[in-house]
Amino acid sequence: MKALIKVGYGCNENCTFCHARERREVQGASAEIHAKIARAFELGHTMVVFSGGEATLRPELFEWFEHAVRLGMDTGLVTNGLRLAYPDFLEKLLARRLKYVYLSLHATRPEVHQRIVRADTHGAALRAVENLAGRGLDFTINCVVTTQNLEHLEDLVDLVLAHPDVRLKFSFVQPQGGAERLFDYIVPPVSEVAARVRDAISYGAERADGGGPSVGHDGIPLCLLPGFEDRYDDLKTHGFWGMTEVGEPDFFPVDDENKVHPETCRGCALIGPCPGLYPAYLGKHGAFELEPITGRRRSNSFDYVFEKMVSDSAPEDLCPIFESGSRPYDRGRHLFVQNGPRLARFFAGGRDFTDREIAFVKHDLGQVYLDQSRKEAPDDFAKDLVPLSRSARCERCGDRSWCAGLYRPVFEDLFARDDARVQEILGGLAGGVLDVGCGEGPYESILAPLATAGRVRYLGLEPDAARVQRLRSRWPWAQVFHGTAEDLAAGRLGLPAGTRFDHLLVLRSWNHLVDPKGALAVLLGFLAPGGSLTVVDNVAFGLARTRTQVARAHRGAAVFEHYRNDAARDAERTLAGLGLELVEKREVGPGTSNQWLLRYEKPTAGKPGGEAPGRRGS
Predict the structure, then answer these.
(1) Hey, where are the domains in the chain?
(2) Half-sphere exposure of 223 (CA within 13 A, CB side)
(3) Which DSSP string do the residues of 298-358 spell out, in sequence order?
(4) Do 84 and 43 contact (CB within 8 A), yes or no?
(5) Does the structure show a pLDDT above 90 at 355?
(6) 26-68, pLDDT tens digit by residue?
(7) How does the average pLDDT of the chain come out, rounded?
(8) Do residues 20 and 9 make contact, with C-beta atoms less than 8 angstroms apart?
(9) Exposure on the CB side of residue 466, measured as CA atoms within 13 A
(10) Which of 445, 453, 440, 413 is nearest to 426 (CA)?
């Protein structure tokens, strides 16, 4: 677990894209750096990595390395590598547990690299690469891709082919600092960068007979890199947990807040691990280059994995998190759970969800649970999951808006309480019922008596053939068809022409539909005027788990079934314009379960959007 410490912004190069262009004279005091090394150790980091500017210019560098070593930590550098071209200098660092190097090199051709860094340093950078390769280091060459080197990426692949232990990373230039000032000159179209990176990775694989060097990328939306999505490489993939700039009072969590996902990305299956776009790039060019990936499933939950027990010796009126210094903890990804005198810390390190998604689920929706089951995946939420709620201690805290928060278990069956309304609605049905995505038949105890008594004529529609067979064997009172909305519309299910239903149910299957708007546009043609549509589903949620539980889940046979994790407002927006009248809405929020509900009526003749009555029932 690495901590990144910026020691100052002075540098012996003058890169066109430099983030710190306006702060190059700012240097951190040596005492501040020593204090941050000690703080990194206190927080549990196993390595400190020094960055700048150019950290190797600081005469205190060896002192800082020695301080980290005395505390038992390894050391690392983010560097342009110029001083590492000197073997004696490098040997002194290696003797002080140098284990990680992230070195900037933007081309193998001198004129290209030097045009970018605006200094005659290409030869020294290449010597540094030769000195570092083969030393057993965690060593990455980082190439910032600009218009100046866009045509020369494959040359760098040739370089790392000669050094199999060296990783190569292509980073799309971030429009910040110098790059923002020179945007029109050095920032290429992101789609063109993606194409060049794809070509470079493919070139490496061809030259190495299919294996190829380790080549990653950052700052490029994953939809533009089909087949290379797993090559995404950033601070988190390098094991960084916290970082601190000069003058900052403490470490702050590494996050993805410097990038955004525009509205175009809504519903994309890759949104979780995708870096999105830099805001300045989006503001300049928009999102027309993006190609959202739909039709792929994604997870509907994320794991908070247990890290350690935290001593809670603070008085009742003081916060044990704040007393230990809460700034280094990620507002969304860290979770502190207090149960009696004990305080446990969990961390959500997965990349199925963005930082913003996780923080929204945790804080805005309040959907975090303690998994008390021993199952591969919880399937009875009321029994398997214990809701976690923000502690009353947090209510009046001035740091509430950015703190990870203190959570306590709530021993209340929120799922049964909220599902009671769904059961009440189902119990009041009469007439023809079309249940889309009937799955395992969770509401059998309500629907079976209604059908047996002749009050409802039930037809279930389910795309999973095995589930259809199981329901047919259990439900002699029902018609259950294997198929989709499109099969129904095409007449492949054999229903009489003009068949209409009084009620359309989409119960916990909305997020399982590949194209919910298209499916509902079809299904509403089978809903009689005055009929009802009931949509129920679940938002994403976080699960606090032990490492054993997480390992069991990852070994299990459970598969992703959701194409999205829509909330009620998302479904409402999707259904807008389909001629329905909203009559009931139940959103998810703190104090509720993760289940939402929407009910609509189809207008009758004489109302806006109404139509003549048709044949009802099946």
Answers:
(1) 2-249+258-285, 301-411, 415-538+558-601
(2) 22
(3) B-SEEEEEEEEEEE--S-TTS-HHHHT--TTS-TTTEEEEEETTEEEEEE---SSS-HHHH
(4) no
(5) yes
(6) 999 999 999 999 999 998 899 999 999 999 999 999 999 999 9
(7) 91
(8) yes
(9) 0
(10) 445
Chain length of the chain: 618
Res. 25 pLDDT band, cuts 50 70 90:
confident
Closest C-alpha to 368, from 414, 322, 323:
414
CB 319 within 8 A of CB 393: yes
Instruction: Compute the distance between CA of residue 525 and CA of residue 537 in angstroms, rounded to an integer.
Output: 22
CATH architecture designation of domain 415-538+558-601: 3-Layer(aba) Sandwich (3.40)
Whether the CB-CB separation of 54 and 79 falls below 8 Å is answered with yes
Ramachandran angles phi, psi of 534, nearest 5°: -120, 120
The one-letter amino acid at 437 = G
> Minimal CA–CA distance to 353: which of 205, 521, 452, 236?
236
Average pLDDT over residues 465-471: 95
**Does the 2-249+258-285 domain belong in CATH 3.20.20.70?**
yes
The confidence score (pLDDT) of residue 378 equals 87
- Note the pLDDT of residue 389: 96
Confidence of residue 617 (pLDDT cuts 50, 70, 90): very low
Cα 350 to Cα 108, 174, 193, 469, 550, distances in angstroms: 35, 24, 27, 36, 11
